Amino acid sequence: xxxxxxxLSDLTQLKQIYIEIIRHMxxxxxxxxxxxxxxEFFEEDIRQNRLYLLTEHTEIIAAFALCSSHSGEHxxxxxxxxxxxxxxxxxxxxxxxxxTGIGSLMLEKAKETARAxxxxxxxxxxxxxxxxxxxxxxxxxFQQADGFFEETIDEDFTLHEFGYxxxxx
Length: 169
Fold this sequence. Notes:
This protein has one domain: Gcn5-related N-acetyltransferase (GNAT) (Aminopeptidase). The longest helix has 17 residues, at about 10-25. Strands 1, 2, 3, 4, 5, 6, 7 and 8 form an eight-stranded mixed β-sheet that branches. The chain has helices spanning about 10-25, 40-45, 100-115, 130-140, and strands at about 1-5, 50-55, 60-65, 85-95, 120-125, 145, 150-155, 155-165. By secondary structure, it is an alpha+beta fold. A hairpin with a 2-residue loop joins strand 7 (about 150-155) and strand 8 (about 155-165).
């Protein structure tokens, strides 16, 4: 397996994989992603050199973005405020590889990459109904921050998100 930055030629396959992830999430009553998010953010992630992939030959197995800010960052109380922080966003595992340990591997890659980029903390937000993701983050040492972030998508749809963090030192 190869871990690398995404390039624009990955975009078509990446979107196809995330469409399958979204279908899988919807089937499991986790309707939090759609045809806009996260797929419409990938091109900018690639252009900003913040989207990372795990591949096997030409197949994308998993992806995530490392961002310097998050709209919810000031809505929760972090256990250790301060220090350089990167935010893990849009983590997705190819549906064919779910349940194989790739999620934990990608979290290790995210921690290694964030550390190499000079971050003191890796933080993320996860929607309260995404129990599989919450279990994954907790299993891998992430600690929940106090409070939550309400992200209003439209007048009929608000996401309730918990913040999680891990120290990289």
